[in-house]
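Allow me, if you will, to draw on your knowledge of protein folds for a short while. I have a record of one protein: its chain in single-letter code and its fold written as discrete structure tokens. Could you please explain, in whatever detail you think fit, how the structure tokens follow from the sequence? The record follows directly beneath this note:
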Amino acid sequence: MSAIIKTEGLHYTYPGDEIETLSGIDIEIEEGSFAVILGHNGSGKSTLAKLFNAILLPTSGKVTVSGIDTADEARILDVRRTIGMVFQNPDNQIVANVVEDDVAFAPENLGVPSAEIRERVDDALRRVGMYDYRMHAPHLLSGGQKQRVAIAGVLAMNPRCVVLDEP
């Protein structure tokens, strides 16, 4: 198997900070594997997750996703199609007023045909146990239910890899 995510000499410093958040990180995650990154609050786990999906770009070093350099602006959509990201706070990810519309949002933006979107949405909602809530307003759901809707939204994209930031 080949690496779906690879970092080489990865460094990251937030703009305006003097202290590096990440320093010299080398990781190789094989496609099909499960990996867990553990650390204390403020240790850089969320930063690393955002670097995997090119939400952030390295200060120095390199992140590649399925061989694509995340710093290559022309390939950013390829990176984001490959790596689905579930954020820590589902309220930062839910964008629609109806659950099924929210889950359909990313596939619609990827240009997936309508009939396939319907299948993907229903399948994703069933997989996370939220199909019966498909017509509900996300803001009325519990925190755990919102998290499952956010996960369904990522699954509906059919990414090759899912990154969960403290779900």
In short: DSSP finds five helices and six strands in the chain. The chain has two domains: 3-84, 90-164. The longest strand covers residues 3-12.
